[in-house]
Amino acid sequence: MQAAVYRAFGGPEVVRIETVADPVPKPNEILIRVRATTVSAADWRLRSLQVPAGFGWIVRLVVGPFSPRRPILGTELSGTVAAIGPQVRRFAVGDEVFAYLGARLGAHAELCTISEDGAVLHKPPQLSFEESAAISFGGVTALRFLRDRGKLQPGEKVLIIGASGAVGSAAVQLAKHLGAVVTGVTSTPNVELVRSLGADRVIDYRREDWRQPGESYDLICDTVGVASIADATPLLTEQGRLLLVAAGLPEMLRGVWVSLTGKKKVLSGDATGTAQDLEDLKRIIEAGAYKPVIGQVLPLSRIAEAHALVDTGHKRGNVIVTVQRGA
Ligand SMILES: NC(=O)c1ccc[n+]([C@@H]2O[C@H](COP(=O)([O-])OP(=O)(O)OC[C@H]3O[C@@H](n4cnc5c(N)ncnc54)[C@H](OP(=O)(O)O)[C@@H]3O)[C@@H](O)[C@H]2O)c1
């Protein structure tokens, strides 16, 4: 099969299309013919090793001290089931699915395997393959942070920083679905997009600072890594929560101390997705309350360009890569 492979860490140019062996499903696995996938912020970080402060050596140990251990990136996908192992019961050949591979990676390829008990579900019929490919990375992260870590309640006031990114655009929609009053922070070209996602108020960070004294929020969710604890906690209500999606290690440790010594909580960490999270997102999609935002769509042959778009740090929603077997 054709796959996008990186054999060294570096810029978008290290990603090349190669022919590699087709994966073979184990007895409990399905083989998916990938129709679409995304280049996410995780792919950018793993490829470039540009990671939040304090995580450099940990990431290097995990992904490979000298060269990438898993040379095919890609955390999420949509596609059709091409073959099934003999123990598989939930899926049949031809089924349309979407899946979250997360840290296992491997979606930037024509074919990919996953356990039928993994984070894989039938594709929501109301979404295209391109949209379905982008459900999981942003959706799971936003859901895990807002609902599980932040315990967002109906009627609460939320500030979402980076409201047009993959995580932020999902967070705006999911926060509205959870009944919150949402303010989104974005730049001028994305103000209308964020409003269309349901934000009650939009702050254009090029014209206005969200750190205005006098404002108060029950929950602040920073998906960018621009909010320091010192900046954000004065804007929180007495029992407010600050969610740091892209925090470095020093800020995470400061957050633990602030949470232990006061009523305000600073919460961070990773957001691994499960099949249950995908079920929850699918239900929200079916209720018409979540639809992944698509910025650009490029074919697998142009995946290095897709990486370059993600590297800017200013992509709109998700960068989709379409995959056609034998193209
Ligand atoms: N903790 C976890 O488990 C977890 C999971 C997933 C992702 N992440 C991290 O979350 C971060 C966001 O991921 P993503 O996929 O959403 O990235 P993304 O799609 O590239 O979004 C980044 C967003 O940041 C905005 N932005 C850039 N500079 C800004 C500023 N100064 N103020 C406000 N907004 C600004 C951009 O909007 P404009 O173009 O309008 O500037 C863009 O929409 C990444 O660092 C990723 O590594 C963490």
Characteristic terms for this protein:
327 residues; alpha/beta; Quinone Oxidoreductase, Chain A, domain 1; Rossmann fold; seven-stranded mixed beta sheet; six-stranded parallel beta sheet; globular; binds NADP nicotinamide-adenine-dinucleotide phosphate
Task: Describe the protein.
This protein is an alpha/beta fold and 327 residues long. It folds into 2 domains: 2-135 and 292-322, Quinone Oxidoreductase, Chain A, domain 1 (Alpha-Beta Complex); 137-267, Rossmann fold (3-Layer(aba) Sandwich), CATH 3.40.50.720. It has 10 helices and 15 strands. It has helices at 41-48, 56-63, 129-133, 136-149, 166-177, 191-196, 229-232, 249-261, 275-286, 303-311, and strands spanning 2-6, 15-19, 29-39, 76-84, 96-100, 111-115, 120-122, 157-161, 181-186, 201-204, 217-222, 236-244, 265-267, 294-299, 318-322. The strands form 3 sheets. Strands 3, 4, 5, 6, 7, 14 and 15 form a 7-stranded mixed β-sheet that branches. Strands 10-9-8-11-12-13 form a 6-stranded parallel β-sheet. Strands 1-2 form a two-stranded antiparallel sheet. Strand 8 (157-161), helix 5 (166-177) and strand 9 (181-186) form a beta-alpha-beta unit. The chain starts with a strand and ends in a 5-residue tail after the last strand. The mean pLDDT is 97. Bound molecules: NADP nicotinamide-adenine-dinucleotide phosphate.
